[in-house]
Amino acid sequence: MKRKMASLMVCAAMTAALLAGCGSSGEPASSNADNQDAAGADDAAGGDDAAGGDDAAGGDDAAGGGESGEKITIGFAQVGHESDWRTASTKSCQDVFSAENGYDLQFVDCDNDSAAQIEAIRGFIQQAVDYIIVDPIVSKGWDTVLTECEDAGIPVIVIDRTIDDSDKYVSWVGSNFKTEGLAAGEWLKAYAEAKGISEINALVIEGSTGASATLGRTEGFQEIAEANGWKIVDSQSGDFTEAGGQEVMESYIKSYEGQFNVVICQNDNEAFGAMTAMKNAGIEYGVGKDVILVSFDACTAGLEKVMSGDINADFECNPLAAPDVEKVIKQLQAGETPEKEVYMTEHWYVNEDILSSITVNGEEQELTVVTQEIVDAQY
Ligand code: GYE
Question: Which of 67, 161, 305, 331 has its Cβ near the most Cβ atoms within 10 Å?
Fold first, then answer.
């Protein structure tokens, strides 16, 4: 209950922020940073520099080259536009780093192309932005370009997915994906026990290959599967998209019909695709049906499917990192050293009121039954 209240309060605060923020409109497009002036060209108005205005360091922007009153320029190399989660993440950044708040946001949608993402960052270096935000499509291959950022004196803030082969960034704000995978496993274990299901034959639809979100969720779930002797019948990438989820599920049905009783989708959009494939094949999934369906993200549309009983459990990944990223930038502006790692708060959502909590990493964590109120408050 306490966690639920906290969640609702955070959401209420976000709604207020969204209303106050008034979004800029970065178009999903190619990796050419030059045409991505998402924050608009009305920089001259910058009287009420919200980010710089209450700058503890005083007039001069410590990190930027700008004089007092100038906007803080941020280059944001976003993964793409593959999912509801991604849309919420982009909106969060565009709302917080708006012109009204004192920022000039250069937004680049990298369309899930790692090479394009590196080039976007090089474009930001050429533009001499004050800060770079990157959500790394894949976890490896970062040291060279991050060294270039360091040499240019541009602080890099990583959001969401992690970088595993370089530490040349000032801060990372995101989620513990392995914990999410462990939570899904612990929930399934407790749920199967409560329902008297003795055998688990699971199909996994993974996220994009090489993404830390995929690696962590896979590792966490596998750990619990191995410890309990479950069979993972197959595990393939659906690329975090609805079309990918449907395609993988269709091929799973061809190969394994009648041989699975659990489908684990590593995001909501894949779950929607898997639902379509199962529906078309006449396979019944969800609460009280033949196949237990588990998802990650818990965006609004995912929670609606939990409430309707189509998805049994959904493990939240919070996409609203931008307010925490802004805190990091304000600390840098003030000459302070931010935390190297900032973890988002998230919740585990279920349809049935039969288990109140699970134990993850030795810690008791609440399960929240989805209600309309919760759906309405979600991003
Ligand atoms: O789960 C998925 C998105 O990196 C955590 O990427 C993120 C994942 C999220 O496409 O929906």
Answer: 161
Q: Which residues pair with 291 in a beta bridge?
A: 285
204 pLDDT above the threshold of 90: yes
Q: Which residues pair with 335 in a beta bridge?
A: none
Contact predicate 302/268, CB 8 Å: yes
pTM of the model: 0.84
CA angle 200, 272, 228 (to 5 degrees): 15
pLDDT at position 378: 97
Pocket residues: Cβ below 6 A from ligand 1: 82-83, 85-86, 160-161, 213, 240, 267, 296-297, 317
- 66 C-alpha to ligand 1 centroid (Å): 34
52-80 pLDDT per residue, tens:
333 333 333 434 444 457 999 999 999 99
Distance CA 144, CA 141 (A): 8
Q: How many CA atoms lie within 13 A of 314 on its CB side?
A: 32
Q: What percentage of the chain carries pLDDT values higher than 90?
A: 82
Structure-token pair, residue 177: 């994906």
HSE (side-chain half, CA atoms, 13 Å) at 147: 6
Residue type, 21: G
